[in-house]
Amino acid sequence: MLLDAELFDPATGTFGPTGWIRSARENQTATLLADGRVLLAGGDDGDQAFLASAELYTP
């Protein structure tokens, strides 16, 4: 199942659609990689169940 993802625009202070992710997650880490992609790792599913997965966001 794919879930809608949003991207924050600091210039306008708003969120907008950007694509999809496979796992709903909160409290994850987001690491900007040298090639511009962002690695989302860990966190929880919003119901306190920890996630042992990661996803790559490609702008």
List the helices and strands and how they pair.
Elements: E1 3-9, E2 14-21, E3 29-32, E4 38-41, E5 54-57
Antiparallel strand pairs: 1-2, 3-4, 4-5
Provide a descriptive summary of the structure in words:
The chain is an all-beta fold and 59 residues long. The chain has no helices and five strands. It has strands at 3-9, 14-21, 29-32, 38-41, 54-57. The strands form two sheets. The chain has a three-stranded antiparallel beta sheet with strand order 3-4-5, with no helix packed on it. It is globular and about 35 Å long. The mean pLDDT is 89.
How would you briefly describe this protein structure?
0% of the residues lie in helices and 46% in strands.
